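Memo to structure team: turn this sequence into structure tokens by end of day. - J.P.
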Amino acid sequence: MEYFYDYKSPVGDIMIKSDETCITGLCFKGQSDKKETCDKKYKETTAIKEAKKWLDIYFSGKNPEFIPAINPEGTEFQKPVWKILLEIPYGKTTTYGEIAGKIAEIKNVSRMSAQAVGGAVGKNPIAIIIPCHRVVGKNGNMTGYAYGIDKKISLLALEGADMGKFFEDWESR
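Reply from structure team:
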């Protein structure tokens, strides 16, 4: 059974989805490309309570220092990418290319496509907790985010991430 909870955040309403034990989805409401379930069952499972606690700490501007129980559904390529996302420190960023290098190392191949990594990052079903917003383009360029660049900027600013390169590029337009 899937359970849902609506969470109000400073950057928009969030829908948390869980099974009995783990968070299986977290997205900004009204901006998911996934089919919304019409017959939602709202219940605060233990996993949802943990996710709410995590989000409360996060949106207070602090590093939550724990990860609630999560179980993202994805392909055998997506899951290791998401695992790497979980390793990006709070307030820091990495590039698609750096992640591609790590995936190439894991798969024992000479190189991996940064675009393939971008596709996996974009399919992350548990936004914010699996911090896909911390991935930037080559040379620190602010690149796409499923929920909009404005939300990505807000999340990175909340974390105190250095976005100097992005703002330099933005002002030079």
